[in-house]
User: Fold this.
Amino acid sequence: MPILTKEFLEQIGIYLDDESIAKLSESVEEELYQRVIKEIIELSDDDIIAELSKLNDMSDSDAQSWLQANVEDLDEIVNDEIAILLGDLAENADNIR
Assistant:
């Protein structure tokens, strides 16, 4: 399920065509991934951190399964970062065109 929808963007005053929404969504999802990994690193021990480097070699579903099995509070981390990102988008809505 995408994080950004056209309806959400319009609710916060961002009006974009479908192609621009897709590009923005891709950018937001990449930013979310980076933020989640950073937060996991900050909260994890050395063994988990060493394993994180292997995520790039895994399929998306394998990486997701590994994260769910090995990262305590993963859902909370992801939900917190989504809320922060969406808040950032809302605050900067006037600058997004």
Observations:
- Residues 18-43 form the longest helix (26 residues).
- The two ends are 23 Å apart (CA to CA).
- The chain has one domain: 6-95.
